[in-house]
TrEMBL record:
Keywords, alphabetical: Cell membrane, Membrane, Transmembrane, Transmembrane helix, Transport
ABC transmembrane type-1 domain span: 68-258
InterPro entries per record: BP-dependent_transpt_permease, MetI-like, MetI-like_sf
Protein's organism: Actinopolyspora alba
Subcellular compartments: Cell membrane
GO cellular component: plasma membrane
GO biological process: transmembrane transport
PROSITE patterns xrefs: ABC_TM1 (PS50928)
Protein's UniProt name: Peptide/nickel transport system permease protein
Length: 270
């Protein structure tokens, strides 16, 4: 079999589902029309508004084209931050000799894991901690327990543990083992987890924005639009389904691309 065919993941459907919302998020604002309230509330599609208007009388097509930048950027920032902090913590406690430190970190993370995400966001909103930076930091912190546990489990797998012991016997430094070998070992599980965790982050972003923790409830954001217009789903479905489909496409595309990429990576190694 010619292995060169598997060097690059070829996933037309996955890439299509991924690129449509991403390109819409970053190029859509360049061609979007006005997002001001110019029509009646929840108007059906017509010549002036091809997809109708939303609860606030704004053009749904313009909102869909201009509402992706904030949610995509904030979700990516929260995910990236949680893994940049969580994975190194997992590698340190997994490759260390101090079992008490491992148990202490896990117990602290268990306490954080027990806190309901929405309740934490509600408390932050009630105490005046608002803004996009606060939202990104809060959601990234809420993801830390799961991220650390997944990376730690991957680093402590039987095959990995045997290889680490062999490298220690050969005189390899612990820092090199943690950042080098263990880092590569947890890459696959971490990428799969990040792809599936994106939907949870988007849900928390939408709920927080609707509560006024991050963006205003009138912001041109896909997640905010869904929360704002969900009660009018059967009156003006486009105001809900268009941003919802873009978010579903984003999550599905990321998962398909990551899964196929890892599958091709394993095939090439064989």
């Amino acid at each position: 079999m010619n292995r060169s065919r598997h060097r690059f993941p070829i996933t037309p459907i996955g890439w299509l589902l991924l690129l449509v919302p991403v390109l819409t998020a970053f190029l859509g604002p360049l061609v979007a029309g006005s997002t001001r309230s110019e029509g009646g509330s929840l108007s059906p599609p017509g010549p002036e508004h091809p997809l109708g208007t939303d609860e606030l009388g704004r053009d749904v097509l313009a909102l869909a084209l201009s509402g992706g930048t904030s949610i995509v950027t904030m979700a990516a920032a929260a995910l990236l931050l949680s893994y940049l902090i969580g994975v190194p913590i997992a590698l340190v406690i997994a490759g260390g000799r101090r079992r008490w430190a491992d148990r202490l970190v896990l117990r602290l993370l268990d306490f954080l894991l027990a806190l309901p995400g929405l309740l934490v966001l509600l408390v932050l909103a009630a105490t005046g901690w608002r803004g996009t930076t606060t939202l990104v930091l809060a959601i990234a912190t809420l993801q830390l327990p799961a991220v650390v546990r997944i990376a730690r489990t991957a680093a402590l797998s039987p095959g990995t543990s045997t290889a680490v012991e062999s490298m220690l016997m050969q005189g390899e430094g612990r820092a090199r083992i943690r950042l080098g070998y263990l880092g590569r070992s947890v890459l696959g599980p971490v990428l799969v987890d990040a792809a599936s965790r994106l939907s949870l982050v988007l849900y928390l972003m939408a709920s927080a924005n609707f509560l006024g923790l991050g963006l205003a409830s009138s912001a041109t954001d896909w997640a905010v639009l869904i929360e704002l217009n969900r009660d009018a789903l059967f009156i003006q479905p486009w105001a809900v389904t268009v941003p919802a489909l873009l978010l579903v496409s984003l999550c599905t595309g990321v998962n398909l691309v990551v899964d196929r990429s890892l599958s091709n990576r394993r095939t090439v190694r064989r």
